[in-house]
Design goal:
The protein has four helices and two strands. With 144 residues, it is mostly helical. It has a domain of 87 residues: ACP-like (Non-ribosomal Peptide Synthetase Peptidyl Carrier Protein, Chain A, Orthogonal Bundle). A two-stranded antiparallel sheet has the order 1-2. Helix 2 packs across helix 3. The longest helix is centred in the middle third of the chain and has 15 residues. It is elongated.
């Protein structure tokens, strides 16, 4: 086992990732070793796609495609693990899905500089405001 492989296998996330791979591909967990190839394990490409989706969902990440491999991102279990762990270790960017711990609210009402369309026939100009209990029923109608 190389140093990189040993580090991958010692990462606590590795066991969770391998559990997901086993579940999604129906490959016995004990066969999922770093040097095992996806081909020799008999993992179909559709199963691999489902596995990637499951990992992305579990960790709320997007696993990027390795462009130079043109769709064959992972030839071994170790390659899959390394790529997923590398993705997990990257700082999140604006393109990475993020979750919020709690709903965010605005500190004060915002005013609009130009009319905003409510639907095809109703608009509010900047002098009109609505609270939660008010609605506009007809075009040009004042708030109730």
């Amino acid at each position: 086992m190389t140093t990189d492989t040993a580090a991958i296998m010692q990462d606590p996330r590795t066991q969770e990732i391998l559990d997901i791979v086993a579940k999604e591909t129906n490959v016995p967990r004990e066969k999922l070793v770093p040097e095992a190839t996806i081909e020799e394990l008999g993992i179909a490409s559709l199963d691999m796609v489902q596995t990637i989706f499951a990992i992305e969902s579990k960790y709320n990440i997007e696993i990027p495609v390795v462009e130079e491999r043109q769709g064959a991102e992972f030839t071994t279990v170790g390659g899959l693990l390394a790529h997923v762990l590398q993705t997990l270790d990257k700082p999140q960017t604006q393109d990475t899905p993020q979750t919020l711990d709690k709903p965010q609210t605005l500190d004060k009402p915002q005013t609009l500089d130009k009319p905003q369309t409510l639907d095809k026939s109703q608009t509010l100009d900047k002098s009109q405001t609505l609270d939660k209990s008010q609605t506009l029923d007809k075009p040009g109608a004042e708030p109730a």
